[in-house]
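Reviewers of the previous submission asked for a worked example of the structure-prediction workflow described in the proposal, so we include one complete record here. The input consisted solely of the amino acid sequence. No template or homolog information was supplied to the procedure at any stage.
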Amino acid sequence: MGESGSGANPRDESAKPALAPVTPLHPRSRRSLDLLRQWPLILVLVIMGIAVGFVALDQFRVGSILLAVGVLAAFVLRLVLPAAQVGMLAVRGRSMDLIVLGSLGGALLVFALWVPPPS
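From that input alone, the workflow returned the following structure tokens.
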């Protein structure tokens, strides 16, 4: 068993190809900017969270009205903001989003005001 002399040993470290450096697709500094671009959705979610808090504190009417206000805020934001700025608030086409958000917000507001206060 002699040396073949036909080339380098495949286990030799110098024979491995050099790898290109890995760069992240989204650096950490861009993540906060991406989150800020979703401000319409964040605003609506904050209103919804406050509404759920009021309901949890046994303020059903106030919480329900705030829930309706949150959905109607989503409706207004979807109506006035261009498609490039609406972010993840856009789910379907603009007209379908407006129909669904307007109907749901209006119905929630009517039902929140319709429910009699506890006696």
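The chain has a mean pLDDT of 85. We consider this example representative of the routine output the project will generate in years two and three.
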